[in-house]
Amino acid sequence: MTRAVLLPLAALCLSLLPLPVAGAPVAERPLPVVDLNVHLPYQLVAQGRSLTHASGQADAPRLRRGGVIGVVLPLVGGERRARPEPAYHTLYRALWAGPELRIPGCRRPGPGIRTWLALEGGATLAAAPTSAGLWATRGVRLFGLVHDRDGELATSAMTPPPVLTGLTPLGREVTRKVYAAGGVVDVSHASEMTLRDVLEIARETGAPVVASHANARALAEHPRNLTDSQLADIGRSGGVVGISFHRRLLARGREAELSHVVAHIRHVAKVAGIDAVAIGSGFEGGITPPHALLNATRFPRLGQALADSGMPRHEVRKVLAGNALRVLCPSKAR
Fold first, then answer.
1. What mean pLDDT is predicted for residues 238-242?
2. What separation, in Å, do the N-terminal and C-terminal C-alpha atoms of the chain show?
3. Do 129 and 84 form a contact (C-beta atoms < 8 A)?
């Protein structure tokens, strides 16, 4: 068959192929995701489930299908809950028993989802202020100082106003010890005064501040959400804000949708810089996410929605994983 015949035939065949469908997934292989707040320890310890069969939101198989390459697992929920040592040992045994999640997360990439730990609530550090270094060696990267009520270290975002104090003297001591140990303070549940005090110490030490799961108060009024000035301060510290998928933090008084997640991401990027935005879904912690982000397998929908909103691909990659990795693994070798 001659070239003159082959070329028109090839063109005809190509014309018969289906055109791309608007709104189709970005790619077969999803963009990588690092989630700063996944409550698998709660499912494992409190609910008697496993890392591979949790509530259906973000167990290991679903994380993999959604392109998740790294997660931060919180060990403690607040001052009134059990001490973290038993939960830590239970979690560690589960991590080592299977290849799905790999700790510590800053090793060179290999098989398994890279895993870091977090302490939520300040009771552990209040009882043992010098233990920050120990917990850092155990894989804890993010240290919360307070949860849903005032504690020995700091005042909470959920305390009714007026809140006139932030860090206690012990809280200031512990904050400095966390940074000295190479950890990062997480202000997700901190009052405005606590956040102010943490930022002051972070500036002194040249360290970042993280809000692993919080959103923009300008878009959804909630005590846990952050004002524009707070977002900007976290960005200037070199830290990140992990956007939560919890409907109460996304849209007050109406059903939360994927568009609300995109709006919070773009708002934080506008006021704090694109390098200050990350993901902190809150999956497996009893949250109600938008239906389009019902579980971790749907992370590609978020990547597509960000791209559809006009965000360049390299910025989408920063939001989904790059910014979180920069804070979790500050050394050049990730």
1. 99
2. 54
3. no
Q: In the prediction, which pLDDT does 82 show? A: 56
Q: What is the pLDDT of residue 83?
A: 74
CA atoms within 13 A of residue 315's CA, in its CB half-sphere:
19
Question: How far is it, in rounded angstroms, from Cα 112 to Cα 92?
Answer: 14
**Rounded Cα distance, 123 and 309, in Å:** 42
Q: Which fold has domain 31-328?
A: TIM Barrel (3.20.20)
Q: Which helix (H) or strand (E) holds 278?
A: strand 277-279
| Nearest one of 222, 219, 196 to 209, comparing CA atoms | 196
The 3-state secondary structure of 229-268 reads HHHHHHHHCCCCEEECCCHHHHCCCCCCCHHHHHHHHHHH
* Bridge pairing between strands 277-279 and 209-210: unpaired
pLDDT tens-digit map of 95-106: 988 888 998 889
pLDDT of residue 140: 96
> According to DSSP H, which parts of the chain are helical?
3-16, 40-45, 60-65, 84-97, 123-127, 132-137, 169-180, 192-205, 228-236, 247-250, 258-272, 299-308, 313-317, 323-328
Handedness of CA 137, 139, 142, 144 (dihedral sign): negative
For 117, residues 6+ apart whose C-beta sits below 8 A from its C-beta are: 72, 73, 74, 75, 88, 91, 103, 135, 138, 139, 140, 141, 142
Q: Mean pLDDT over residues 188-197, rounded?
A: 98
Q: Of 314, 315, 215, 245, nearest to 273 (Cα)?
A: 315
CB-CB contact of 129 with 170 (8 Å): yes
Tell me the three state secondary structure of residue 190.
strand
* Alpha carbon distance 27, 291 (integer Å): 21
Scanning the structure block, which residue is given the tokens 């259906």? 56
pLDDT tens-digit series, residues 65-77: 999 999 999 997 4
Which tokens belong to 18?
A: 């289906």
Which residue ranges make up each domain of the chain?
Answer: 31-328
